[in-house]
Amino acid sequence: MAESKRVLVHNDLDIVSARVEGRNLAKRLGFGVIDQARIATAISELARNLVLYADGGQISLQALEAGGRRGIQIVCSDEGPGIADIDLVMQDGYSTQRGLGMGLPGTRRLMDEFEIESQVDTGTTVTIRKWLN
Amino acid sequence: MTLNVPRIPILQIENFLVASIQTELHDKTAIHFKDDLLQRIYDTKARGLVLDLTAIDVVDSFIARIIGDVAEMAGLMGALVVVTGLQPAVAITLVELGVEMRGVVTALNLEKGIVRLRKLVADDSDVTQPDVRLGETDPAHP
């Protein structure tokens, strides 16, 4: 039952597609309305980073099954400029010149698991997971 | 080739504007909406705006920022903003995201929003003199 879906994100319309797909998968897996909103919001934040900072990327959505528990995994990856100082962007209140943050600390709070890998001039991958109780 | 972005309708009730967002809010739609709204406030000299978000099930930091900006700019133009219909899941998500929407007054639904707006505008009109005048000491706290 390993459901998975990939969404290419290059513009603001794709941000909406990604979060709608994410929400639909979350709903099918049995997540409640509030968790659906958390997941959709987290996806929206990550997808927006792809558009704002990385010139596009892709988001993959997967159903998870481990130790009798079901969950959802979202992997957001790009081949953009990468993040030089991950600790910095993971601070609340960090923002670029345009006054926009990357929404990463918030995204982490919304989900159960959060992993980030980034290399300057190579790209960034953010993996988030949420489990059904 | 540019796509025609569907505009969100803005209605006028009494001397207020009412906008109910019924469609998925793409970034471009949101930005056009902000511009349209502010222009309408200016054209109609509206004293207030009710922004109904009942149909919205996701508000991320970008959209929250647009709403905050709309409230701030509308305030600068002399109009008060009341946001209505915020779904509980959205309210919870906004708090957990850590997003602040400053200067945004809320009400449960459209009807309560208009009632609230009428009261806020009436209270606002009652203020004719400043509370503190320069050069004078406050008699309560000499």
Question: What's the β-strand tally of chain B?
Answer: 5
Approximately how much helix is present in the residues of chain B?
40-55%
Gyration radius over CA of chain B: 17 Å
Strand-residue fraction of chain B? 15-25%
CATH level-3 fold name of chain A:
Heat Shock Protein 90
CATH architecture of chain B: 2-Layer Sandwich
Measured distance between first and last alpha carbons of chain A:
18 Å
How many domains of chain A? The number is 1
Could you give the order of strands across the largest sheet of chain B? 1-2-3-4-5
Shape assignment of chain B: globular
Give helix and strand order of chain B, one letter per element, not per position: EEHEHEHEH
Strand order of the largest sheet of chain A: 1-2-3-5-4
H/I helix tally of chain A: 4
The structural class of chain B is alpha/beta
CATH T-level topology of chain B: Transcription Regulator spoIIAA
User: What is the name of the CATH class of chain B?
Assistant: Alpha Beta
Q: Tell me, what is the CATH class of chain A?
A: Alpha Beta
